[in-house]
Amino acid sequence: MSKRTRKLERESKPASESKDPVVHKRDLPAEPTPTHDWKRTIIGITGVLVVGVIVFVLYSRSQTPPLLEETFTSGSAQYCATRSKFIQSLGFTGITAFDTRSRYVKGAALREVDANGSILDTHQDPTWDDAGYLGALQNDENGNVYLIPVPFISVLENPPEKANTIWRIDTDTGLMQPFIDLPPAVPITAQSLFGLLDLAYDCDTKMIYASSVLGSTQTQMAGRIYQIDPATRSVKAILEGIDGFGLGIFNDMRGKRLYIGLARSPEIYSVGLSNNGDMGNDLRYEMSITDVSEAYVDDRARSIVFQSQTQMVIKTLKFNYNLVAPSETRQTILVYTYDSNADNWQYTSSQVTSE
C-alpha cells in the first residue's frame, strides 16, 4: 500500500511558556445506564466491577496546543519501531520479539522465532526481571525498549510504590534500568494495586504517552494520562482524572489523535495532539466495544494498535481493580476499518484468543 501524506491542521492559541507539566482535567459524557448485574464475579485478571458515572471537570492552566504545521503520514503514528542494536551481538539472525507474558517469564525475555512462530532461542539479561512482572512495551526508532510493571502475580514482585515507573532496555548495552518515575495524583495506599497500564510512542513527535490508574480503586478514580519527553526524561503534560487503559496514536482526517480505552467502561475516546505532541482540549468519543455486541459490556480496550492507514485492532480484556492470577487469559480481538469519507471506524471482524 502506497503511503499518502497530508497536512494536519487545528485552530490554536500560543503555547504556555511554563516549564511545569501542563495539567488538564476533563468532562466525559455520562455513561449509558448499565443493563446487567455489575456485582457478579468475573474471572480474568480481575474480580468485581463497580458501576460509576465518570465525571471530569474541564480545567487547563495552559493554552491550546500550537497549530499542526507538520506533514505527517496518515495512519499509524507508531511506525518506526526498530530492532535493538545489542541483538546482533547475540547471534540472533531470525525474527525476534520481546516476551513479557507472565505465564511464561518473569520480567522480559527475548525470543528468536521461525516463520511459524516456534521458539528457536531465548535470551534474558539478568536486569530484565528487576521490575518484577512486566506488561506493555514500546520500541523507539533507535531500538530502545520502554516497558511498564504490572502486578499480574502479586504486589510482592510489583509493589505499588514502583507501579508508576517506566523502565528502558538500552539499545546498545541491552541493560534494563528505571527510566522515569511518574507522579501519582493521590497518595498511594494499600488499595493502590495497579499503576501503569499501557504505553504509546509517537514516531512523528518523539513523545511517549502512558496511562496509569495508580491511586484508583473500585470506588475512586485517580487515573492520569502522561505526555513524556524521552529526550529530557520529563513529564510535559498530564491529562487528569481519567482511568485509561489501552493507548494508540492515529493521524486521521482531522489531525493527530491519541486514542484512549477507558478502564471503567467499554468506551474509547481520543484527544488531539499538536505537531510537537501536546495534548489538546478536545476529548472526543470514538466508539464503544458494545457497538459490536452487548456481550462485550464487561470488556475493556487493553491495547489499541493501528496496523495500516486504515486498520485498527483492539485487544480487549475483562478488568477491574483486584488481583486475580488466571490459569488462562482470554481476550477478544476486534478489527475496525477507517472510513476516511465519514471520518469514523467501521467494525470488520472479531476472534477470541488465549495467552
Number of strands: 24
User: Major β-sheet, in short?
Assistant: 6 strands, mixed
Number of domains: 1
Helix content: under 10%
In whole angstroms, the N-to-C terminal distance is: 31 Å
User: The CATH topology, please?
Assistant: Neuraminidase
- Tell me the CATH architecture: 6 Propeller
Shape: globular
Flag low-confidence runs: 1-18, 29-69
Oligomeric organization of the protein chains: single chain
Encode the helix/strand succession as letters.
EEEEEEEEEEEEEEEEEEEEEEEE
- Strand % is 35-45%
Spatial ordering of strands, largest sheet: 3-2-16-15-14-13
Rg, rounded, reads 20 Å
Please count the helical segments.
0
Structural class: mainly beta
Overview of this structure, please?
This protein is 0% helix and 40% strand. With 355 residues, it is an all-beta fold. The protein has one domain (5-354): Neuraminidase, CATH 2.120.10. A six-stranded mixed beta sheet has the order 3-2-16-15-14-13, with no helix packed on it. A five-stranded antiparallel beta sheet has the order 5-17-18-19-20, with no helix packed on it. Strands 9-10-11-12 form a four-stranded antiparallel beta sheet, with no helix packed on it. Residues 1-18 and 29-69 have low confidence and may be disordered.
